[in-house]
Design goal:
Elements (H helix, E strand, L loop, with lengths): L1 H24 L17
Length: 42
């Protein structure tokens, strides 16, 4: 029983990981620069 349990959870984990990585590849890159207004006096 334990082997089947572990295999099922491993398969679930792999499926979630694959879906996460597939979704992550399609997201636009995150800009690390803070947004600054055009007018520095503001």
């Amino acid at each position: 029983m334990a082997d089947g349990y572990l295999e099922k959870h491993q398969q679930d984990y792999e499926a979630r990981k694959e879906a996460y990585l597939r979704k992550k590849r399609h997201l636009p890159p995150v800009s690390k620069k803070p947004h600054r207004p055009d007018d520095e006096a503001l």
